[in-house]
Amino acid sequence: MSWDGHLPESREYRRILAGLGAAGIATFAQLYSPQGLLPTLARGLGVAPADAALSVSVATLGVALAVLPWSWVADRVGRLRAMQVAIVASTALGVLVALAPNIEVLLALRLVEGMALGGLPALAVTYLHDEVHARHTAAAAAAYISGTTIGGAAGRLVAGPLAGLVGWRPALLTVAVVCAAASAVFLRLMPRPRGYRPAGATARTVVDGMRTSLRDPALVGLYLQGALLMGGFVAVYNYLAFRLEGPEFALPATVGSLIFAAYAAGTASSRLTGRLVPRLGRRRVLVGGTLTMAAGAALTLAGSLAVVVLGLLVLTAGFFAAHATASAWVGARASTGRAQATALYNVAYYSGSALVGWVLGYAWSDRGWGSVVASVVALAAVALVVALATLPRPRSHRGARQGVRGMRTRLGAFDGSASE
């Protein structure tokens, strides 16, 4: 009897979403918790803002370096088994990071921690495409992305205020304990895989999958969306706390770190994306998210704290709408080598985070917040141009323009419009 994937009414579907939500919390709370305490970390270790931001960048670089090897491991031992190994290893490394004696050891441990964490984002969306019915993968992927926003916010919101009270080491250790609990939930809930069996993939399989993906202009365009938008997004969150705790606003660290509550907008927009894509099409939602992100970045230039917070909410909602759409689109478009296709998206996504998130620290130190915002808007503009040039239009629009060619053409265009 053929099996097409779990449906929303099934117990296994609900366990998958809850389990991957817990994994998103465990992964992204660890990955980004230092971002919530960067000013405290910089003062505690006596380093510059850009150097403190390396604690985020080297971890995301580790993710970028590891996602392709993790995709190869998953092809040999199974997606779920690989994710289980990754989450246990990263939890142990999270404790060691909190105990690092100096910036050099901390950065080395963060790099290795990022490489362990890379197993989750590299495989989660691929796993969903294996295990969930194709009609519901966009909604399931959006639910997973919303879990990652909760994790990212939780790590920052736990670490930031605590660092202002007890120091950065106890703060990071507390996050590690929270992540251990979330990891246990993931390990307990995930059902036995049914949609994929390990195939003993070779290195050649991985290379062939990468080559196929890189020959597809639309996939390359989606990879650039991840790199450009994530780079700008992380830079805003890396350096806005320095502005808020500086002379312009003079907020204490325990208050300034609360800006990460804006991640709630990303949680909401990720879930909304799962409903909007079938109605509007992927291309429109992606473009709309990018424009929204740029508008939010511009609002943060204001001298009013309320408007800055509003801008951060708008930027966050726009970014996660675009990211949820692009990441799910990669998995849906890749007909062969899906693990490698989604891994390449994550390589681009986390490389953008690592590079731009670090480099714009020098823009902040040299020219102030206006320079950071100008760079973020420019990155969004380039991403928009790439999206319009490389991503397919909804077929329904082509069908409407070509209506004189017959009912068959129009019906075919209508049937495919929701998947673009």
UniProtKB/TrEMBL annotation:
The chain crosses the membrane at residues 12-32, 52-73, 85-103, 171-190, 218-237, 249-273, 285-302, 308-331, 343-363, 369-391. It is a multi-pass membrane protein. Keywords: Cell membrane, Membrane, Transmembrane, Transmembrane helix, Transport. CDD domains: MFS_NepI_like. Residues 16-395 form the Major facilitator superfamily (MFS) profile domain. It is found in: Cell membrane. PROSITE patterns: MFS. It comes from the Bacteria. InterPro entries: MFS, MFS_dom, MFS_trans_sf. Gene3D superfamilies: MFS general substrate transporter like domains. Belongs to the major facilitator superfamily. PANTHER family: BLL2771 PROTEIN (PTHR43271), INNER MEMBRANE TRANSPORT PROTEIN YNFM (PTHR43271:SF1). This is MFS transporter.
